[in-house]
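Dear colleague,

Following up on Tuesday's group meeting, I ran the structure prediction for the two-component complex that the binding team flagged. I've pasted the input sequences exactly as they went in, so you can double-check that nothing got truncated or mislabelled along the way. The structure tokens for the whole assembly follow below. Feel free to forward this to whoever is handling the docking comparison.

Inputs:
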Amino acid sequence: MSKVTCDMAVSLDGFTAGPNQSLDKPFGEGEDGRLTRWMTEEPEAHAEVLESITAAGAFIMGRNMFGPSRGDWDLEWTGWWGDEPPYHAPVFVLTHHEREPVEMKGGTTFTFVTEGIEAALAQAREAAGDAAVAIAGGAHTVNQYLAAGAIDELRLHVAPVVLGAGERLFEGVGDVDLEPVGKPWGTDLVTHLTYRVNR
Amino acid sequence: MSKVTCDMAVSLDGFTAGPNQSLDKPFGEGEDGRLTRWMTEEPEAHAEVLESITAAGAFIMGRNMFGPSRGDWDLEWTGWWGDEPPYHAPVFVLTHHEREPVEMKGGTTFTFVTEGIEAALAQAREAAGDAAVAIAGGAHTVNQYLAAGAIDELRLHVAPVVLGAGERLFEGVGDVDLEPVGKPWGTDLVTHLTYRVNR
């Protein structure tokens, strides 16, 4: 069965985004691109990490990671991710509002799942085949899958940043049994930590 | 002037202790020794880190790190740390209740400071001479010194543990400018991360 992975860019105090995420500030207030500077400023140094993030055969994300709107769909909106999203694979979006799939350039299809996290995972597993399923975020979605014991490998990319408020990883996940995998490493902009989640 | 250092054993979700710290559970509920297993089970692997923790010329700690009592002093109590505490140096204890200094075996003297964090730091600097001053904890004390911009080097020892509640590092410290120092490293029980705090 597919391995379920999760990569999260996170502040040293455990936030994956600041408060009040919006169209202008998808990572919330106070973040100012600091959680992902390593991706934009040092892509070569982290090439292997960046590849592994998008290597999955299918992705799952919360609705807030798909777009800033809430409630009924704004059908003009096709995500933060531009015409050709970086996923190049099926992406399952958790939502309470039904919507027809949206096909993007480059092989990314957004499929909207209203039946909950287990249903989304089952669909993603089927779409991924032998490849991994990645829980793409945000924190609320990751926390739900962690609490359900559904994530096999958690890869944290810790920026030397203190956000102080926002979306917090690990909130309400219970007692998760983690085991470091490989060696931690990093640059001035990020430290990469990988954990196996034992069941 | 003395460098001000701070070593903190911390869970992956940012707690330095679980909730409801008490005489029986100095690290609070749910911690069960898991934040400091690396110290007790792998002292050789981390010998250099352990030495650097106690290398300072003077230490500052919050009252809750000195003992479980609150309010007026129980004068029978001389700390969690046994007859010969591991500090072997002057230790300044932040408190609102005056008390005469307590001299322990091995060179540790607990001096009780009621005039606040700046006064304690001034006394510790004087006692330390050219050696470092270490902010020993707990989280509340460290957060006060971080918010005051008084810590030069923060050394986090991150256990692969999710506590979910308790005393949280970085709470209310504002926007701290951190810069990784050296390379992160660790074992299955802990990851060591060092940061310079820029002013």
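Chain A touches chain B through 30 residues (CB under 8 Å).

Cheers,
M.
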